[in-house]
From TrEMBL:
PANTHER family (alphabetical): SOLUTE CARRIER FAMILY 2, FACILITATED GLUCOSE TRANSPORTER, SUGAR TRANSPORT PROTEIN 1
Membrane topology note: Multi-pass membrane protein
Protein name per Swiss-Prot or TrEMBL: Major facilitator superfamily (MFS) profile domain-containing protein
Residue ranges of every copy of the Major facilitator superfamily (MFS) profile domain listed in the record: 27-479
Annotated transmembrane regions: 20-40, 82-102, 108-127, 134-153, 173-192, 204-223, 285-309, 321-343, 355-374, 386-405, 425-447, 454-475
Gene3D superfamilies hit by this protein: MFS general substrate transporter like domains
Keywords: Membrane, Sugar transport, Symport, Transmembrane, Transmembrane helix, Transport
Keyword Transport: yes
GO CC aspect terms: membrane
Amino acid sequence: MSAAGGIHVGGRKKDYPGNLTPFVTVTCILAAMGGLIFGYDIGISGGVTSMDPFLKKFFPSVYRKKNLDITANRYCRYNSQILTMFTSSLYLAAMLSSLVASTVTRKFGRRLSMLFGGLLFLIGALVNGFSQYVWMLIVGRIFLGFGIGFANQSVPIYLSEMAPYKYRGAFNIGFQLSVTIGILVSNILNYFSNKIKGGWGWRLSLSGAMVPALIIIIGSLVLPETPNSMIERGDCDAAKAQLKRIRGVEEVDEEFNDLVVASEASMQVEHPWRNLLERKYRSHLTIAVLIPFFQQFSGINVIMFYAPVFFNSIGFKNDAALMSAVITGGVNVVATCVSIYGVDKWGRRALFLEGGVQMVICQAIVAAAIGVKFGTDGYIGDLPKWYAVVVVLFICIYVSGYAWSWGPLGWLVPSEIFPLEIRSAAQSLNVSVNMFFTFLVSQIFLTMLCHMKFGLFIFFAFFVVVMTFYIYFMLPETKGVPIEGMSRVWKLRSYCLIFDFLLFNIVKN
């Protein structure tokens, strides 16, 4: 399949020849599996925090409130800041490590950054699996977070640089597909480990993170480095040979020369973090901050981090809650495949906009359904079977809307829009903002659920409305644009520059 396409530069259509080779296909699939560690952790934490043996050992007060206090408000069963710290501490660590990962990725290559991520995640999995005290759980989570910070910073960049631009969207979303597969696998493991006699199944769930860690470690050792990274580190001859191998053709001079020019420009940048604040990068900075912010305030964390906890809170039994999480995880995987098929066919904007509308409608329906049944006190009995089916159905439709829009595109668009001279720093900023708001939402979610009740869905729906309008007015289409040609087409609508200017000055000050 030919990867030819192009953009118009100075009235001339510019094409980079090349094929979708088996080599680059296998390479990108293997690299995308780096998303497994992120997805596995998202799914596993919510599952183990709903398991009675885990709660009884580490969080006895939550265990008593859940199982022994029949007067406890259903919305507030799991409201514990220490319990939420178990989940959220990982994302705070990921935010910090992603800043360090920027330097490693830029100076030593994408593969080494992936390797560090896998090793740190492996250490965290071992510590969590053998934990005897709460502090051991937190330390293990911090190591997991360090690993995720490195992997989430380097893998999307690696995929964007390796893939032919005509298929860049599909290959990059492979990272998000791996995230969703990791969530599904962890949900399935939680369901079965909860049935293990003796109450030690939670250890199996937590230590199971060693498997995706080993996958990314082995992958980082066998993957080739990207031509961009080779040029960045002065190995131009090897970079050109690598580019020929990746594209499957000998005529790569034009693309190679553009990469060299971009690299030379990047070498002039002594302080990429400071350069992010320059006027010419203002639009890119806006995207790097707002897209991860909106992604985390879409409400998806309510489902993915705490799915079993959430389902248990609204009336599902333990096994039913874990199985409902498996169902939503399966929907997440299938819907992400839709995005892989359509992102380079329909474009980024179309998926963003359709997904936003779908999510808002479902959030409103779920809020109404839970509000009618439980009101604000949450004391009414368990959900009837048909009612539970309706709630799960619309949550699945909501998850599917997210999975083919804000889920994968929230990682794809920021990773492809940055020029090489600021790419590592900007991607680190993107990951840091993402992890900070992931930490914030995961830390306060159970408290918000306790106080806002079903209104929590309306709260997140408001942000989905705002971010959908933001995409409509401010995001240019990047489908089919070579990664080194982004600067030539990156123009925001003039009446949005006021908003852009305000955000720039807030960040600068």
